[in-house]
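Q: What does the assembly look like in three dimensions?
Context provided by user:
Components: two
Sequences:
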Amino acid sequence: MVTSVTSLGRSGLSDWMIQRISAWVMTSYLVFIVGYFFANPNLDYAQWAELNSSLPMRMYSLITILSIAAHAWIGMWCVLTDYITVRLIGPKATAIRIFLQLGMIAITLLYVVWAIDILWGI
Amino acid sequence: MLNVSIYRYNPEVDAEPYMQDFKVDTQGKDLMVLDVLEKLKTEDPTLVFRRSCREGVCGSDGMNISGKNGLACVTPLSEAVKKNKLVVRPLPGLPVIRDLVIDMSQFYAQYEKIQPYMINNSPAPAIERLQSPEERAKLDGLYECILCACCSTACPSFWWNPDKFIGPSGLLQAYRFLADSRDTATEERLANLDDPFSVFRCHGIMNCVQVCPKGLNPTKAIGHIRNMLINSAT
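A: Here is the predicted structure of the complete assembly.
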């Protein structure tokens, strides 16, 4: 058992599952949005604003944004723990990695809060 | 004449590794790569590599042959030579001791972690612990691993985290004991694997499957471990 304190779910299985589920959510959102554009070739601002201010759409968008955040957290955590290691870049790696991980987590959370502000501000 | 380029490094003499070129007369025969190395060693006794059974059973002569990990003894020149050139390097990712010989301590440390032995604390029966033919069949494709390290050293996840990621070879063996009907430590074994590194650093790129000289499928075994983890944790 290898411990980890900055991964999203702490457990490998949990991270793996979140990664898969969030991927499906993002794919479905993409298909929906592209499909909506095709179904409404003469889309105007009023219609677009109406769609995005409805509660179901806000919820769908929020779930997608949370999925992007979780997906990015897990993915970036993997990349950082692969390449920013003592083995590859020397003894300073741990400090650099923690700094980058916390930075990545902070930016991710910031985007989530900002997105909520935008979604409920329409 | 076949052009052969071999990775040379003797830490007592060389400041850094270098590639040495040789010419070998194969007399038009489709020799195994190990035969070529043996021939070269008679000319240059300082060339160092591991070998033992010379028939793909012991797993000693795993090396990187023209860019692909494999056993020198069972890799024919017809598969390995490109443009009349054979390039031989040590297995990637682990420290080189000398020439084609690598330090496999980290590989074995990961193997040790998965407790590669039967755990069953119930009293032993008078003769032996029986298995049905179906239960025994589950071990096919798992027990044949010879620990040559060709798969684990072809895996980028193992290159980056050889101290944390168990690697395809160790995980194949982990599943060999998880799948064994006589082993009773399934829950403990699974609990030891459920972290973000041990199993889940596998991203399924299947380099291991591509290089395994025994034709085994570690990616499939890793998928089975993941399914067992899902079964027990959801």
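Follow-up: The first strand of chain B starts at residue 2 and ends at 8.
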